[in-house]
Amino acid sequence: MSAGADIVRQAWQAKTALLAFNIPYLPMLQPVVAAVAAQNAVALISVARLEWLKFESGSMRAVRDEFERWQRPSAGQAALPGAVWLHLDHIPVLDEDHLRVDYLPLLREAVVLGYRSLMLDGSRLPLAENIQATRAAVELAHAAGLPLEAELGAVMGHEAGPLPPYEELFASGQGFTDVAEAAEFVRATGCDWLSVAVGNIHGAISGVKKDQVKVQARLNLERISQITQATGVPLVLHGGSGIQQADVRAAITRGIAKINIGTEIRQAYEVTLRAASASPRAAGSVPVAQAAVYERTTWLIRDFFGLAGSRPMFVLD
Q1: Which is the most buried residue in 115, 129, 220, 250, by most CB within 10 A?
Q2: Residue 1 within any structural domain of the chain
Q3: 78: domain range?
């Protein structure tokens, strides 16, 4: 791979992190890109399979087309100069409804569409099956010159049933990534980045729960250090919304190089859109919701994660 082909590894080597913003609704993409540009930052624009099946992102092609629309100038519209990278997030082998997914064709489609990094999530499988599936995905990605993210451990929150109380979950270490298994997994698969479970949880994606404020999670920082030392690859934190600021900033110094953000900006969009749609000026509801996404994205980059001005640190192709 060229110097700019793996910006997550660049972040890891610099002991900083990149934010990956998930796009469940297409109108969210423009304000995210605009905020990244305004903050002179670098970020990933991500879409997961569940976001075109259970939300309104449409498809990975629709997200790619919207992404390109804001990267290139057109009649009456200037391109936004943010350093953004298109990432295919969470293509599961076994999905949140426990259905098997034909994952390799989806990864191939992303390569053809121009996505610059891919993720395969085999975390619901037994270790040997996860290794087998991930190795096949790594071979596909590397043949195209792309990095491949994998997942080991159970980052909970997308399941249909209720979660155990968070403090019980954290104290027990239920679903946490095992250090020895992580070392074996990375060695056997050749994956480039590893998503880990260390106290982080996903926001709910269905029913009334999707509007609830997430539990303020914390992280097992020692476990992060141990996994970093055992694997020697950049680590990824899914469920990045709602984690205590001190924990997430400490995690970056210990090997977390990519942090996925979904709930924070999705709820900003949904709540504002509903409130604006209930007003007499409902026709302007989407721009109002986009403004809320811009403000929240700006706050996350600049104030919560302290990543404003980070663009000069990266070599970008």
Answers
A1: 115
A2: no
A3: 7-307
Residue 315 in any domain: the answer is: no
Q: Determine which one of 89, 178, 192, 247 is catalytic.
A: 89
Q: Give the 3-state DSSP-derived string for 59-109, with helices as H, strands as E and coil as C.
A: CHHHHHHHHHHCCCCECCECCCCCEEEEEEEEEECECCCCCECCHHHHHHH
256-261 and 117-121 strand pairing: unpaired
* 312 domain residue, yes or no: no
- What's the pLDDT at 96? 84
pLDDT digits (tens, 9 = 90+) for 82-123: 588 999 999 999 998 889 999 999 999 999 999 999 999 999
Residue carrying the six token digits 């994952």 = 103
* 131-155 mean pLDDT: 96
List, in sequence order, every beta strand (DSSP E) within the chain. 18-22, 42-48, 83-92, 117-121, 148-152, 193-196, 235-237, 256-261
pLDDT higher than threshold 90 for residue 192: yes
The reply to whether 89 belongs to the active site is yes
Can you name the residues that pair with 87 across neighbouring β-strands? 46, 117
Strand, coil or helix: 276: helix
Number of Cβ within 10 Å of residue 261's Cβ equals 27
Q: For position 18, which CATH number holds?
A: 3.20.20.70
Cβ–Cβ contacts within 10 Å for residue 247, how many? 19
- The amino acid sitting at 40 is N
CB of 192 closer than 8 Å to CB of 148:
yes
Number of domains in the chain: 1
Q: What is the pTM of this model?
A: 0.89
Query: Residue 111 contacts by C-beta under 8 Å, 6 or more apart in sequence?
Result: 118, 140, 141, 144, 146
Let me know if residue 130 belongs to a domain. Answer: yes
Q: Which residues pair with 259 in a beta bridge?
A: 19, 237
Task: Quote the CA–CA distance of 291 and 297 in Å, as a whole number.
Answer: 10
**197 vs 163: CA distance, rounded Å:** 15
Ramachandran region of residue 82, left (φ > 0), alpha (ψ -120 to 50) or beta? beta
Calculate Rg over the CA atoms of the chain: 18
